Amino acid sequence: MGGQLLLNEPLSRHTSWRVGGPADRYYEPAGRDDLVEFVRGLPASEPILWIGLGSNLLVRDGGVRGTVIALHGALETLERHGDAGIHAEAGVHCARMAKYATGEGLAGAGFFAGIPGTVGGALAMNAGAHGGETWNHVSEVEVLFRDGRSAWLPRSEFRYGYRHVEWPQGMVGFLAARFGFAPDSTGTAAQDMKQWLARRKATQPVGKPSAGSTFRNPPGDHAARLIESCGLKGHRIGGAQVSELHANFIITDEGARAADVEALIAQVRGIVQEKTGVELIPEVKVVGEVA
């Protein structure tokens, strides 16, 4: 193997909340072929957790049993595909793809600049921002199976909805995707993206440890509005706090524990449901064991 295998690696080093216990095994592949061989060599019963930038993920303080595979820094090919398409490997930062696509004169990719993760993570959860969603632009994806086989599958092989994707049986992860966009006929795509990023910087706690949006937006409403209406901006448990800038973001202080974040998520959900009757659904994925 050409990659790096670490034992008992603290996942607080690799998640955007900067919390989380150790992974039994943490692997950073050297590239695509190295990744395929590594997965092929794992026991069939070995749990696998894939991470990119560690956003949209809460790892509990007891850590993760099995193997964590980190793709960011390994699968980073990004290139034009056809007249109005982009080929991106799973480790490519979404913001990088947005900038590349607009630079290539394509429209419709700017919303990816608002997704704080990688292409692989965006595919796994149908991530979105500014009204755009990942799978609306997917034409086909390259996937990896447990036995090391890979295959290109059309979008029709997947069922997806708001922040949700169902995978074919036997598949363990995404290797790459091809996206379709439209020519930037008005010449405004780059400017639109700059405006979205400026609005994001002004309205979200950019630069502070968070995992992006904590809750899904309920139909016809916004989680942030509901949380703020309950007076929860700034509410804190331990080292975790509801952002004063954007109520759907939870930020962490140095020394925070995953248990603080999880408890705050539960408390916010309970208060919002009690006061508004709306049940907020977490957007973040919670994994691992309680310490």
From TrEMBL:
Keywords: Cell cycle, Cell division, Cell shape, Cell wall biogenesis/degradation, Cytoplasm, FAD, Flavoprotein, NADP, Oxidoreductase, Peptidoglycan synthesis. Its main location: cytoplasm. It catalyses: UDP-N-acetyl-alpha-D-muramate + NADP(+) = UDP-N-acetyl-3-O-(1-carboxyvinyl)-alpha-D-glucosamine + NADPH + H(+). Its cofactor is FAD. Pathway: Cell wall biogenesis; peptidoglycan biosynthesis. Pfam families: FAD_binding_4, MurB_C. GO terms for cellular component: cytosol. GO terms for biological process: cell division; cell wall organization; peptidoglycan biosynthetic process; regulation of cell shape. Its EC number is 1.3.1.98. Residues 19-220 form the FAD-binding PCMH-type domain. It is found in: Cytoplasm. It is an enzyme of class 1 (oxidoreductase). GO terms for molecular function: FAD binding; UDP-N-acetylmuramate dehydrogenase activity. The active site is at R163, S213 (proton donor), E283. InterPro entries: FAD-bd_PCMH, FAD-bd_PCMH-like_sf, FAD-bd_PCMH_sub1, FAD-bd_PCMH_sub2, MurB, MurB_C, MurB_C_sf, Oxid_FAD_bind_N. Belongs to the MurB family. Cell wall formation. This is UDP-N-acetylenolpyruvoylglucosamine reductase. The gene is murB.
